[in-house]
Design brief:
This protein is mainly alpha-helical. It has one domain. Helix content is 71%, strand content 0%. The chain is built from two helices and no strands. The protein starts with a helix and ends with a helix.
Length: 62
């Protein structure tokens, strides 16, 4: 995703936002979106940690 697309995309969820006016269905949808985002972030962390491990191994051999 390009940086411009990230900036242009409005946030659907605002952390700390008042939830009192949302229905149970809307709240469940938010939970699903947040869980999907957490999984995506965890995958990215895993990928970055893997790349870091490969780089560290390479430089230890030098």
């Amino acid at each position: 995703m390009e940086d411009e697309e990230r900036i242009a995309k409005p946030a659907d969820i605002v952390i700390g936002e008042d939830l009192s006016m949302l229905s149970v269905e809307e709240l469940e949808h938010r939970i699903e979106m947040l869980e999907n985002e957490i999984a995506r972030i965890r995958d990215d962390i895993g990928s970055k940690q893997s790349s870091l491990s490969v780089a560290e191994s390479f430089f230890k051999q030098l």
